[in-house]
Write a structure and sequence with these properties.
This protein is mainly beta. The protein has a domain of 83 residues: Immunoglobulin-like (Sandwich). The protein contains 1 helix and 7 strands; from the N terminus they run αβββββββ. The strands form 2 sheets. A 4-stranded antiparallel beta sheet has the order 1-2-7-6, with no helix packed on it. The termini are far apart. The N terminus is likely disordered.
């Protein structure tokens, strides 16, 4: 059962006893960030639609904040690993935990009407554009 390890195509013909040490060093010195939060932003005419991939997160672990014309998205996944007994212990644990964070300048957005939804691992934000005020004018009568 201890042979359940990922198959590494690159080195499948030669055993490298130091590979596990390289992986251990990389894991030890890496931060707990899950990488960059990937987004798509579409202009839909009177608003923008921002879609962010956040697979595997619970809705409660995702936060969207608006402050001073900045929209911030943060998501955090906590490790639920707790080894209580040897019988059910992990042979290998590769799923990551950590956090994502990304901020956007939202000048020109109607902040009071931003809407957010989360479905199938995708956070969708609707960012309505501010209405351009038409300049009002009038002709003055000369006295």
């Amino acid at each position: 059962m201890n042979m359940l390890v990922p198959y590494n195509r690159k080195n499948h013909s030669v055993y490298n006893p130091f590979q596990d040490f390289d992986d251990l060093e990389r894991a030890f010195f890496s931060d707990r960030s899950l990488g960059e939060l990937k987004t798509d932003i579409k202009d839909t005419g009177d608003s923008y639609t921002l879609e962010a991939d956040l697979p595997g997160f619970k809705k409660e672990d995702i936060h969207v904040d608006v402050k001073d014309n900045t929209l911030s998205i943060t998501a955090e996944r906590h490790s639920e690993f707790e080894q209580k007994e040897k019988k059910n212990s992990f042979l290998r644990c590769e799923r990551s935990f950590g956090s994502y964070s990304r901020s956007f300048d939202i000048s020109g957005i109607d902040c009071a009407n931003i809407k957010a939804g989360y479905k199938d691992g995708v956070l969708t934000l609707t960012l309505p554009k501010q209405k351009k005020e038409e300049p009002t004018g009038r002709r003055l009568e000369i006295e």
